[in-house]
Design brief:
133 residues, alpha+beta, globular, two-stranded antiparallel ribbon, 3 helices
Length: 133
């Protein structure tokens, strides 16, 4: 796990590293080890940089209540890549909202067309989730 400061698109500086620890001789699940390393890093980060605003960027492995709660209690933001099946209730709600077409935007470009869709404030156990596709 790495904590980095982005100073410029071409200047990214590592400020903290937390290694994934596997107990010797035991089979460890990838998710448990990576999440535990992330939570250790978050604890160290908060202790060493208590006033530094942060935005954690991560994959769908961290789309869970514990991660959201830790970020909320520390005043941090996050951007997570959502993967189908990560939080089924959020996916169901997004699927229903998406069918309305309310937030879909399409754009013609010189080399084709593109579209995006988004919804904000989808509830997940008291945490507000925003989705952009």
């Amino acid at each position: 796990m790495e904590a980095k400061i982005v100073l410029h698109p071409d200047i990214i500086v590592s400020i903290m590293t937390e290694f994934v620890e596997n107990t010797e001789g035991e089979e460890a699940e990838k998710q448990d080890c990576e999440r535990k390393a992330c939570y250790r890093l978050m604890g160290r980060f908060k202790k060493e940089f208590p006033r530094l605003p942060a935005c954690f960027c991560a994959d769908s492995l961290y789309a869970c209540e514990n991660f959201f709660a830790r970020c909320r209690s520390s005043g941090w933001h996050y951007i997570l890549r959502y993967k189908e099946g990560s939080i089924p209730t959020v996916a169901d709600e997004y699927g229903r909202l998406k069918k309305t077409g309310k937030n879909r935007r399409e754009q013609e470009l010189s080399d084709g067309s593109c579209w995006h869709d988004f919804f904000t404030d989808i509830d997940y156990n008291g945490h507000k989730v925003n989705i952009a596709e």
